[in-house]
Amino acid sequence: MPVFFPEPDKTIFGLLSEPTKVEPKTTGVLLMSGTFGGTTTLGRNRMWLKLARSLAERGYPVLRLDYTGLGDSIGEPFCYELETPAVPEAKAAFDLLASRGVTDILVIATCYGSRGALHGAAGDPRVRGLYLFAPPTRSGTKGVGGADHLAEHVSTGELAKRVFSKRIVRKLAKNPTARKAAVRIVARKLGVSRDAADKRQETAGDSDPRDADPGFHRPLRRLLSDGVPVRFLYGDDDFFWTEFQEASEARLGRELERFADLVAVEVVPGVVRGFLSVRIQDIVIKTSVAWVEEMTP
Amino acid sequence: MTTNLAATRRHPITGITEEIAYFGETPQMLGSIHLPAGEIEGAVVICSSTHAEMLKAYHLEVVLARALAARGIAVHRFQYRGDGNSEGLDTDLTLPAMIDAGREVRSRLKERTGLDRVGYAAVRLGAYPAAALAEEEAGTAILLWDPIPDTDAFIRDAVRSHAIAALKAEAKPESLDKVLKRLDQDGVVELLGYEITSAFHNSIAGKKLSDYTPLETKVMIVPFGSLNMEPIVEAWSHAGIDVANQDRTGSEPWWLAEQVSQDRHHAANTLADKSADWLAAAIKGA
After folding, report:
1. Range of the domain at A162
2. Radius of gyration of the CA atoms of chain A, in A
3. Based on the domain organization, do A19 and A118 belong to the same domain?
4. CATH number of the structural domain spanning residue A62
5. Residue A80 and residue B259: Cβ atoms within 8 Å?
6. How much is the average pLDDT of A177-200?
């Protein structure tokens, strides 16, 4: 069923697959794709559609969506980088599923979608689990990760000096992403004492170049602290697998160890990212269905 | 014709109404109707390509539909049975089925707008259903984005892109002959992670766009890549059709559908605006 949401502007387009032949379960699934192609509802070879149908046949309502500015959603397209994850879309999707009688939400995501899934799900009591396919752990030093880094490591005086330089003023005037980052820095500065323990840990972690960036690490830790299981699947030839392994040797590894009962990491031969082959698509569909059934009370 | 509950919204700024619904006989198709805020001055059916090309052009078609609706033209987009978000299996996707689907959509749009004649916009392989429909009854105008002059180019492009990807992955690329032999033997072949069925391939094989002769219409061809449009222009001009062939815009292979980017969106908006200007004017002048 096609849906426009959230009210009142209905800017996001989604496709809700609801069970028709079996009693709908109260566990629903949100699928968050990468930004491959002109719509994020489908994926290569209709993989997300096939997964949605397969889950709906088993009684699970499943929602797929187009990110802001893509497919049939409304809005200005932007860079779709990890620093600007699709959090509003994820939150609106959770609300939509809840309005259809879903009480427990499972999220299956990849690439760009995995970052939105992590941030959107962190702190939301309706989310009961995440399955992430080849999620990137690092987003460089730009955007959210970079903004947090600056907020935590650069003094207010030094930041003020930088903001008033001609180059930065021009950048802020032209670039909405830079403006978002600036707002985030100010917010972080103002609320810097809010999460002192996190800050200390991250400051220690940021010094290790192997580590995952805060944009990945922070929501993941929040989810695990709240008892939400997170499963990862990489291909052994995925570049992101190499990054994940490196990060696992640093702070991320300590967190994964601390929450070992909530974390599962699987590796399959080949490249998972982009779902380039039918073999990988089949693995994703099969493992996702098995995971959803396993996670359903 | 059955139409399920539609999702409807009115754009807060442009006033354009968008309705998306599953419609038609089972397996149903997913279709989107874009209605102008004011008077409806014309109607257009957009015929997509298939597989990776459909995915790649998806948002470009949305942008074109919105640009046309902003110019007073009602637009119906749709996805073929067995492709995109429509129902159906891979084996349901054949050229005759694509033409039938376009016919259903044309009737639905006529019924919705009360107009007798429609125009068409099409991308790549979508030019075939568009031209076939325009051959059946007089239309208003046809816009073709990078139409494929002969259908063999479709599979050739797919195999070429597959070979490029194989080389990048340090694998051995397969020749066109080998791929076709495999398709014949197995009934399905995997290219860049897409399953191409022999039902689909057999239905498009050996077709030329110039074999179709649209009735009483204006045509604009916008080539993106390196395909030679001259045979189409020549054949259709000879048949008395007013054909314009725009300058090449340049594009990477269609089957290598890449990540979206701001630059691409900017290019998409420019192309859609320019194309919508021409198509809306041609329809209103028809």
Report:
1. 141-210
2. 19
3. yes
4. 3.40.50.1820
5. yes
6. 60
A36: contact with B, CB 8 A cutoff: yes
- Hey, what's the torsion of the CAs at B116, B120, B126, B130, to 10 degrees? 50
CB-CB: which of A3, A45, A77 is closest to B193? A45
Q: Which domains are delineated in chain B?
A: 7-285 (3.40.50.1820)
Same domain, A102 and A163: no
Task: Tell me, yes or no, whether A130 and A53 share the same domain.
Answer: yes
The confidence score (pLDDT) of residue A29 equals 98
A19 and A160 together in one domain: no
Query: pTM of the predicted model, to two decimals?
Result: 0.86
- A35 and A161, same domain (yes or no): no
Question: Does the beta-carbon distance from A35 to B259 stay under 8 Å?
Answer: yes
For residues A21 and A106, membership in a common domain is answered with yes
CB nearest to B85's CB, from A3, A37, A42: A42
Residues A205 and A216 in one domain: no
> From the candidates A16, A39, A51, A68, which should be mutated to test the interface with B, based on the most B CB atoms within 10 A?
A39
Averaged pLDDT, B62-69: 96
**pLDDT bracket for residue B161 (50, 70, 90):** confident
Backbone angles phi, psi at B125, to 5 degrees: -65, -20
**Shortest Cα distance, chain A CAs vs residue B77, angstroms:** 11
Domain match, A130 and A158 both: no
Residue with the two structure tokens 């399920």: B4
B107-130 per-position pLDDT tens digit:
999 999 999 999 999 999 999 999
**Last residue of one domain, picked from the residues A210, A231, A251:** A210
Q: Three-class SS of residue B94?
A: coil
The shortest C-alpha distance from B206 to chain A (Å) reads 25
CB distance B195–A74 less than 8 Å? no
Per-residue pLDDT tens over the stretch B181-233: 999 999 999 988 999 999 999 999 999 999 999 987 899 999 887 788 888 99
Minimum mean pLDDT among A27-31, A124-128, B8-12, B155-159: which range?
B155-159
Give the number of A-B residue pairs with CB atoms closer than 8 Å: 97
Full strand arrangement of the beta sheet holding A127-133:
A2-5, A12-17, A62-65, A27-32, A104-110, A127-133, A230-235, A263-268
Is B194 at the interface with chain A, CB within 8 A?
yes
**Residue after which a domain boundary falls, among A185, A210, A235:** A210
Ranges of H-type helices in chain B? 51-69, 95-113, 127-136, 152-168, 176-186, 198-204, 230-238, 262-285
Number of structural domains (chain A) is 2
Tokens at residue A263, please?
A: 């974390």
pLDDT at A190 over 80: no
